[in-house]
Design a protein that fits this description.
By secondary structure, the protein is α+β, with helices and mostly antiparallel strands. The chain folds into four domains: 174 residues, 3-Layer(aba) Sandwich (Glutaredoxin); 75 residues, no CATH class; 186 residues, Glycosyltransferase, CATH 1.50.10.20; 86 residues, Glutaredoxin (3-Layer(aba) Sandwich), CATH 3.40.30. The chain is built from 28 helices and 21 strands. The strands form six sheets. Strands 10, 11, 14, 15, 16 and 17 form a six-stranded antiparallel β-sheet that branches. Strands 1-3-2-4-5 form a five-stranded mixed β-sheet, sandwiched between helices. Strand 4 and strand 5 form a beta hairpin. The longest helix has 20 residues.
């Protein structure tokens, strides 16, 4: 990420443009461009109307590599800037601060380009905000099969002056298409439970038999976190029903070979078999194969932890090196889920490493989590992360260096463009045999070597940091950290989640409502659906990690605010923007899960969890209306609704309500809590009733599930309930585990 230009640049361009007053690091990157940029707002459109000019809208984000390229090539180019300033009103938008604008104009870009889109997004608008031409990256001169940006600007200006009718026809056509696509396809039948199984099985068949995951956009592979989570649930459901047997993980553990030697790769053909015990077993195997290959690959930061945005090859070797907060949350979450289900220590180790990376690098001193690390440093993508063999040998010495290079596939020639991306090529046992060493000694050498190289790497120029805090992305991270705290028992994760939640509630709210973004003491922009849904989920997870009533209270309050301001009373489901937000071309309503889950998908599960906790039928009815509102869209494109189907799964399968009665400080209470946390059961809610608390009676009155739940012979006890019927209370952790695992 480029920093604001240094003094030498300021000397040649002493007058910044209007973006200098922005909080967004992305907009600040462009504050000294010779382009006369405006932020989005009425001033820009009024100028366009008064001067009869079209609007050039550029949307991107700070960690976007091609956004940097287009800035350096075009927006810093005085000749191109002159054309923009003379013939257009130019607006720059950070897609992460304004996802409402990004959603509308990305849809226009996809429509205009037959499904092709991306960032930087380059859209041309009439002064009344209607798009008439759209694209993505344009080189300054014609190349790569793309028109040169300067020539494009001159052509559009000519058409604006000489063929206005043609442009207006295009804008009306695109706007009409946008408005027709702004909703969802409703079906009164709702979403059947069988669809969850069909989609999970189809995902299993679509996953790569050799390296896991699914390719998109050619050879690119994104971590399929939501798909894997759905597949794990379907496998678990089948196992609980007795159609598959519990089996040990197919992957060999720390230092596993990872690629062709993984047993799951050989079993991958089972994914093509129709739904039966074999194909459901293959769901787990495909997930574990994917987790193994990602953890062994270059997409995973082998020295510092954390996951890169995506891999540019099917082998997971060459990543796009940016690190996004939401990826850390989602990917860590699925590794932790896999550990809970299988007990495999490698999945726990990777999940913890990702969480540790976030705490080390992305949490602000105030508590909120920053948005991203850039892909670039010193103007070169990936420079911070790549190595020559000489650098490694110089840092480690000959013996440790050769062992490290053997394990991480480092050579003189390099494994990518003459340099090396660290990835696990062979397992610990193989390296031990090659070097005639004990495997434990190899592990020790690798651990010491990683630490030494990490310290060397820390002295390099780091990739740029996007230090804005986004409420929705923080909600995802809070949820993942709270789960991590529950599963590992490590309080550092729970404390970090609580600190972030406190930050949002104290610094990113106004008049009881959430704000979207914060940076350097300034919070702004009313929250979107994602912000409410994701943060409510984080608060629910934080409650189950701490059993502090305030987190549940805030989740209930914000969920009510979300219903009040975002719910569509006529058609069901939630709009993306609030009822009092800035009016735009269309008020969109979407449930498609993309890089992050949709707000509707997360809201669905929140409604169902809160309905179970509060025994409120009205919330369950809202969830049913939401499913009906989305059902037609899900039937048409089921692969786009993986996280939504997790909520559907929760709705159809009878969940458990677990109430633990006891003082939180009592070791016997803690033993019961630990027992709950060790069992993979995605369909449960957990509550704690502390009879010694001064407000115990009032709390029980608010939460009907707590009524009548008492200590057993003075000892902490756990009640497992289903379909409003409770089993006998148990006081021993082993009994509780058996009850949780019973059908």
């Amino acid at each position: 990420m480029s920093a604001v230009h240094p003094a030498s640049a300021a000397a040649t361009q002493p007058r910044p443009n209007r973006l200098i007053d922005s909080t967004s690091p992305y907009l600040l990157q462009h504050a000294y461009n010779p382009v006369d940029w405006f932020p989005w707002g009425p001033e820009a459109f009024e100028k366009a109307r008064q001067e009869d000019k079209p609007v050039f809208l550029s949307i991107g984000y700070s960690a976007c590599h091609w956004c940097h390229v287009m800035e350096h090539e075009s927006f810093e180019n005085p000749e191109i800037a002159e054309v923009l300033n003379e013939h257009f009103v130019s607006i720059k938008v950070d897609r992460e601060e304004r996802p409402d604008l990004d959603e509308i104009y990305m849809t226009a870009t996809l429509l205009y380009n037959q499904g092709q889109g991306g960032w930087p997004m380059s859209v041309f608008l009439t002064p009344d905000q209607k798009p008439f031409f759209a694209g993505t990256y344009f080189p300054p001169a014609s190349q790569y099969g793309r028109p040169g940006f300067r020539d494009l600007l001159l052509t559009i200006n000519r058409l604006w002056r000489e063929d206005r009718e043609r442009i207006l026809e295009s804008s009306e056509s695109l706007t009409g298409a946008l408005q027709s696509l702004g909703g969802l396809d409703r079906s009164e039948a709702g979403v059947a439970r069988e669809l969850v199984s069909r989609v999970a099985d189809a995902l299993g068949m679509a996953f790569d038999d050799r390296t896991g995951g699914m390719s998109s956009g050619g050879t690119n592979k994104f971590p399929p976190s939501m798909a894997m989570s759905l597949m794990l649930r379907e496998y678990h459901r089948s196992r609980a029903a007795g159609t598959v047997s519990a089996s040990p993980s197919a992957t060999a553990g720390p230092g596993a070979p990872g690629r062709a030697s993984t047993a799951a790769a050989d079993a991958g053909v089972a994914a093509g078999i129709p739904a039966d015990s074999g194909s459901r077993q293959a769901l787990l195997e495909k997930v574990e194969l994917t987790l193994d290959c990602m953890a062994s690959g270059g997409i995973y930061d082998q020295l510092g932890g954390g996951i890169h945005r995506y891999s540019t090859d099917p082998e997971w070797l060459v990543p796009h090196f940016e690190k996004m907060l939401y990826d850390q949350a989602l990917v860590a979450g699925v590794y932790l889920e896999a550990f809970q289900l299988t007990g495999h220590p490698r999945w726990l180790a990777v999940g913890r490493d990702i969480l540790d990376y976030v705490l080390r690098d992305l949490q602000s001193p105030e508590g909120g989590f920053y948005s991203a690390r850039d892909a670039d440093s010193e103007g070169v993508e990936g420079k911070f992360y790549i190595w020559t063999k000489a650098e490694i040998m110089d840092a480690l010495g000959e013996r440790a260096g050769e062992i490290f290079c053997s394990y991480y596939d480092v050579s003189e020639a390099g494994n990518w463009e003459g340099v090396n991306i660290l990835h696990v090529e062979r397992g610990i046992q193989a390296v031990a045999r090659l070097n005639r060493l004990d495997p434990a000694e190899v592990l020790r050498i690798l651990q010491e070597s990683r630490q030494k190289l990490f310290e060397v790497r820390e002295r390099r120029v780091p990739p740029g940091l996007d230090d804005k805090v986004l409420t929705g992305w923080n909600g995802l991270m809070i949820a993942s950290l709270a789960r991590g705290g529950r599963i590992t028992g490590e309080q550092k994760y729970t404390r970090a989640a609580a600190k972030a939640a406190d930050f949002i509630l104290t610094r990113m709210t106004r008049n009881g409502r959430l704000l979207r973004a914060y940076r350097k003491g300034v919070a702004h922009t009313g929250g979107y659906l994602d912000d409410y849904a994701f943060f409510v989920e984080g608060l629910l997870e934080l409650y189950e990690a701490t059993f502090e009533p305030r987190w549940l209270d805030e989740a209930i309050r914000l969920n009510e605010a979300m219903i009040r301001h975002f719910w569509d009373e006529r058609e069901g489901a939630f709009f993306f923007t609030a009822d009092d937000a800035e009016p735009l071309l269309v008020r969109t309503k979407d449930a498609t899960d993309q890089a992050i889950p949709s707000g509707n998908s997360v809201a669905l599960l929140n409604l169902l969890r809160l309905s179970a906790i509060l025994d409120r039928d009205d919330l369950r009815e809202k969830a049913e209306q939401l499913m009906k509102a989305v059902a037609g869209s899900v039937e048409q494109s089921p692969f786009g609704f993986n996280r939504f189907l997790v909520g559907v799964d929760f709705y159809h399968d009878p969940g458990r309500e677990v109430v633990i009665v006891g003082s939180p400080g009592d070791p016997a209470t803690q033993a019961l809590i630990k027992a709950v946390n060790q069992v993979y059961d995605p369909h449960r809610v957990v509550l704690l009733s502390d009879p010694s608390a001064p407000d115990a009676a009032a709390w029980a009155e608010r939460i009907p599930l707590l009524a009548g739940k008492e200590l057993v012979d003075g000892r902490p006890a756990a009640y497992v309930c289903q379909n409003r019927t409770c089993r006998r209370p148990v006081t021993h952790p082993g009994e509780l585990v058996r009850d949780l695992q019973a059908n």
